[in-house]
Amino acid sequence: MGTKKKKQGFPLGIFFLMLFLLFLVSAAASAGYFYWTVSTRIVEIEENVKKYSTAIVEAFGNVAGINFPMNNYAELKKLFLVRLTDADNEEAFFILADGRIVAHSSSDAEQKVEGNVANDEFRYNIEQLLQPVNQNAREAQFYDYNIQDQKIPFDRRERMVIKDYLYPEISSPGWLATRAVFVWDKPVGTVNLIISKQPIYALIFSQLEESAYIAAGLGVVSLIISLFVALIVYFRYRSTRSDAAAQPVYAELISGPGARGAGIADPMAIPVELSPMRERVVTYTRPGGAAAGRTSTDRTVIRDAIPVKKR
Fold first, then answer.
1. Bridge partners, 298 (sequence order)
2. What is the pLDDT of residue 8?
3. In angstroms, how far is the first alpha carbon of the chain from the final one?
4. Which residue from 34, 119, 136, 293 puts its CA 20 to 30 A from 301's CA?
């Protein structure tokens, strides 16, 4: 009875294992790219904002010191309009030590507080705005600033993750650059520039989208590579099995005593189809001598089957 050959199917194990490993590598690469890009760009944005905002308030302070004795702030207001490039995310003003606004980049914002920042403590932190005056500091100062009416576009859990891994100051939606205005060597007020952190929020969202596209692309590449490798393994295995099945198997026969005398052909010339490393015993009978009155049985052992090429 012949042995039924088991068919070899597609190597799904190899395919899914490679796909899983490549997916892990792709996810790690996408996450690493997002982290490195966002953390690096945030530092660059903050440094650039600090550099240009402190330079601007220095210029504001010099002009305000000139305008204050004349009580004419037209030149300062004009400078506000020239220097502020993003009116929606930037706000500049000059306040005196009692909180009165003497010049503002937005007349609407000035009217809302009736000319005094102390009337809106939620939007204007007067202690922080007047800190250079209280400290008698001449240098421009730069702080994180909490703009109360500006919404942070992340929920609580997202803010915690961003705070722990990307940007610790995510809870403060703005920056404040401030400088004391000195007249006759005395601080009379401060010029202030409030800047929104919208560029950082936009950066995080854009990098999330870009990293998602990168992850999707790497996922497709991983699928193709896994399928390609699995197909190579599959066809290579089939080719090996086909080559093995096409080769005949010959066995070396070791004859028992009297085999040639019984008229049996030389066993070494008999091809026998066997599987490698199997052994069979072939028996045959020959007539015994007349005196013996019986037949005798010889045993031929077929063993050590060795695949060889057919001559």
1. 284
2. 60
3. 28
4. 293
* Cβ atoms of residues 225 and 20 within 8 Å: no
pLDDT tens for 30-54 read 999 999 999 999 999 999 999 999 9
The letter for the amino acid at 42 is I
In this structure, what is the dihedral angle of CA atoms 267, 268, 271, 275, given to the nearest 10 degrees? 100
Return the number of other C-beta atoms located less than 10 Å from residue 34's C-beta. 19
Burial 185-211 (b: 16+ CB within 10 A, else e): eebbbbbbbbbbbebbbebbeebeeeb
Q: Hey, which bits of the chain come out as E strands?
A: 90-96, 101-104, 141-145, 174-183, 186-196, 249-254, 280-287, 295-307
Q: Which two tokens stand for residue 101?
A: 């606004």
Amino acid in the structure at residue 181: V
The single-letter DSSP state of residue 149 is T
Domains delineated in the chain: 12-219 (3.30.450.20), 249-307 (no CATH)
State the CB neighbour count (10 A cutoff) for residue 238.
12
Please tell me which residue, 159 or 265, carries the higher pLDDT value: 159
pLDDT of 51-78, one tens digit each? 999 999 999 999 999 999 998 888 998 9
Sheet holding 101-104, edge to edge: 101-104, 90-96, 186-196, 174-183, 141-145
State pLDDT tens for residues 179-200.
999 998 899 999 999 999 999 9
Place of tokens 């994180």: 144
Residue 43 structure tokens: 């530092």
Question: How many Å apart are CA 180 and CA 144, to the nearest integer?
Answer: 18
Distances (CA, A) of 87 to 81, 123, 201: 9, 16, 18
Are 18 and 225 in contact by the 8 Å Cβ rule? The answer is: yes
Asked whether the whole model's pTM tops 0.70, one would answer no
- Identify which of 255, 241, 248, 242 has the alpha carbon closest to the alpha carbon of residue 284: 255
Both structure tokens of 193:
């520039």
